Fold each of these.
Amino acid sequence: MKLNKDISAIVTGGASGLGAAVVRHLSSCCVKVAIFDMDEARAQPLIGETGSLFFKVDVSDAQAVARGFEEAREINGQERLVVNCAGIAPAMKTVSRGQAHDAGLYAKVIGVNLVGSFNVASQAAAGMAEAEPIGEDKERGVIINTASVAGYDGQIGQVAYASSKGGVIGMTLPMARDLADKGIRVMAIAPGIFGTPMVKGFPREVQDALAAQIPFPSRLGKPDEFAALVAHIAENPMLNGDVIRLDGAIRMPPR
């Protein structure tokens, strides 16, 4: 799928971090981008910079997702690319100070990171399936979900987060197989340690310690590198049904 002015995209969690980098990159390719996020204030500078649309959408709420798609499609038309970057990452051990992990917090993480990705991907696929095929391969759309190296190497305190990202990894192949006859591809990216605003807010010594764990290059990943991979996946039709680790060969230690 060639990224150009004829393509419409949805980016969840697009107000900041990896999602914002994706919004910038797609906009630079003249793609019409709509952001699904909860933080409109944070999105405002990005909207002004890129001309993207913004819709306040809680991805864990299927009805809110449906409304977001309806409103975005009225302006930008049927999306051909969806990139799921929305996510939360609270830390809590299975048992801490004699108390079991908060079940409500666990459910919330699963609801945003896994169910939210499913809500957006499945509803996008339903719309894409009705679109006219494009290009030599008669493609209708591409869905890219964000997993994490934590889905493979979950650390102490990451039981909820790692579970949610493991679920994203696990749904990639069956969803791609489900949608193959409709000309829709599904991929996931599992980033390692990236220099997102959250990580950049850590003390310098913490950032340096994180970077030192990465074999090569021994630095934090750049959000632009994540965005570049999103664009490559969109434009390379043989990438389907798999998860790409984008991590500098890191394998996370227990803590």
Note: The chain has one domain: 8-246.
Amino acid sequence: MKDLIPENHIDIHSHLLFGIDDGAKTFEDTLALTSAMTDFGIKEFITTPHIIQHVWENNTAIISAKEDEVISLFQQNNISLPFKAAAEYLMDDHFVKLFQNENLLCLKDNYVLVEMSYINAPIQLYDILFDLQVAGYKPVLAHPERYLFYHKNFGEYTKLKKAGCLFQLNMLSIVGYYGESVFLTAKKLLENGMIDYVGSDVHHQKHIEAFHHKVDLKDLNPLKEVIANNQFFATLK
């Protein structure tokens, strides 16, 4: 997988801010993960800690403070790279209150990274997506291929696209990291031109190691095109 990452890649989904979710635990972890990803060709980072009520009680203030801390520690270690924090929001009632009452942490402009529970989609999913867009945001759905409850009902992906969702594929889905069913769904989404962007979704060293695995696709062009789409986010200074 790593050989397909261009030298100027922008990663839009990772968990590199240490100590605030299930990603990096210490600054040493942050340092090791970003260093490895830089070696893959990633030159800009938009990291996306979870905001999940009662699980990861993050908010804009907590994330922004941690972002400042990490950047300061980078500077102390003579590391200069474009690095900013957005967030990965779980779509639930708490999320609705957030976007109705405050500004969200976006990937760029009004593009916001959202996710669902891996158990089931929210009952009010399409109401949430509609209201989010009325509020002025563009939803980028994280790793649609990983929602197992859609695997036997592919039409739901078409419905999500029609509802205004952009799709962000996890690159490790294409090497089979999350299992065959996720791989096959990722492959089908790519073949149908439904993926808009990619993300690493790096949490820890095992994810880094998996980037050395081979991509099992006969036609790499759809994947390469989607990887190139990430240049849209190349606005960091």
Note: DSSP finds eight helices and nine strands in the chain.
Amino acid sequence: MIRHPYHAGSFYPERRDELLSAIRASFLHPLGPGQLPSGPGGQRLSYAYLVPHAGYMYSGPIAAHAYYHLSRERVPETVILVGPNHTGLGLAVSVYPRGSWRTPLGDVEVDEEAAKLISTFSGIAAPDMKAHIYEHSLEVQLPFLQFVLGEKFKIVPITVMAQVPSISRALAEAAMRVREEVGIDSVVVATSDLNHYEPHDVAVKKDSLILEAFLKPDPEGVFKAAEEYGVSACGPGPMAMVAYIARAAGTKPLLLSHATSGDVTGEKDWVVGYASVKVPRS
């Protein structure tokens, strides 16, 4: 029951040494945190994070901000990974049920208990491997997680094809119950890229509209901004899930970094927006 890396060699390097170098470069990039993770802390400082999921050469420095903050916390027992379904395969909400995921840095075990609980508590997520075979949005997070957390954590991978408020709310409530009722020390890492394939200035404006709703937090407003202003974010569902968690916890998401691929490459005619956000414990 091993999910092999499908995007090693494209979204990120397939050789271990080159992958480690790429991750370090993301942290040390001018658009990154500017320093490497300093090791785990002793407390849980967050409920959730939002990260991008493009190739490391484009979004790695932005993603590194979230992972730098996560590295300063106590290593979680389980990371609940939630991302959009780009392939159209599988179910409306697909939970990878058991086994492990492999990267060039090693294997990460799926938390089978937490996966079952997410399905049960949400009432809508279901065990399904098909949706995960080719999906990149969660796969690209694993090497970063392995780099900052080591080998002592498990994952619950979830892809969301039907991105609507009711599903985002159900997943948020399920994740919170896993932590609060069952007592599994967990953190949600959700992923979305922001506006796609428009000039830099247009992308920045559209990104700001959906981020404004997200940071309030206004989960319904995330979907409304995407629809009314034509913001082509590929993960409004995962974004809204994080906003629901923040609202339920009585805290506000903290924007750690926002940029576009044009800020990284210098090519600003046709860009994608990226953001890293933390939902801190108050």
Note: The chain has one domain: 18-280.
Amino acid sequence: MSDPRYDRLAELVLDHSLRLQPGEVLRIEADAVAEPLVVPLHREAIKRGAHAYAALDLSGLTELLVAHGAEEQIGFVSPIALREMDAIDASITIWSETNTRSFSRADTDRRQRQLAAQRQLALRRRDRIARGEHRWCGTLCPTEAHAQDAEMSLEDYEAFVFGACHVLDDDPVAHWTGVGEQMQARADELAAVRELRIVGEDTDLTVVVRGRTWRPAYGRKNVPDGEVYTSPVESGINGTIRFGFPAVFGGREVDDARLRLEEGRVVAAEAAGGEDYLRSLLELDDGASGVGEIAFGLNYEIDRFTRNILFDEKIGGTMHLALGMGFEDLGGLNRSALHLDLICDLRREGEVYADGELVWRNGHFLQDPQPARPAERV
């Protein structure tokens, strides 16, 4: 028996996130465990006149490659996949796993080389998105593994996911359009800021954002959504910052990371758990120790940590900083195979100053944004 919540999520992604049109080529990429969402996405895309196809993976195949592949196999990127990325109009990535810790014991260096190679596809897609040639959205299909990470039953986790996506609202598209208007107003205010100072537990970090574009996130590229973000000036990040939430990346976890940055580069890094892994990520390439993103998490309906960055980076009252790849269309210049989001919890002890003026305390802006233009159509 099908679950209508998956149907509603499929409709939201196709109509709001991708604005799918007749005749467009749509790629649906997921693990086979995401079948409950893949099927309605495929069905609804066909109803809209698109040319849809599913690219399904099987759990465990990449682990086999990292464990047993020769060096040239680990670094191989299919030329067919690269050409495919240039030929499609839109794509959906469904994050769904049966084992979110599958690489916990993998050789760190081999795993990093495999990730760096595959990031070529992500960079190709990001460049096409920046040029307006491609539309992409990432969302999640609930699984037992994700529910376990969030310390919930599958039933409770499904309710959490679909509630955060607002698929049971009378008009989900109208909800996210309204979120876009609020986020755009905040982005417009932040556009005038030259420098942010973030103060919290073991945190005192200045971030230069002068001249950079702030973007509202309201369901275009992620579902659920709810953040305002930019790429900071690459040489303008200085100080220390502590990330109280663990970061899960590439099937491994980094717990309680602490960084010291000078002129935009990480010069010291430690973590209570996964410190060696964190340092290996920072050495992935020349841009990995730089900063590509700074963002305010503003979705207060996401109020718990779930060990899934799709939700955790939007937790209302947090900020996150991403090491590695920046956003070129926002002014970011840092290029890297890495984009590692790290979350700083400012809800109990945190302040943010904009050009010396206190604008945020304990997880909330002190003033509501002024009404602004409609959210940008990206």
Note: The longest strand covers residues 25-31.
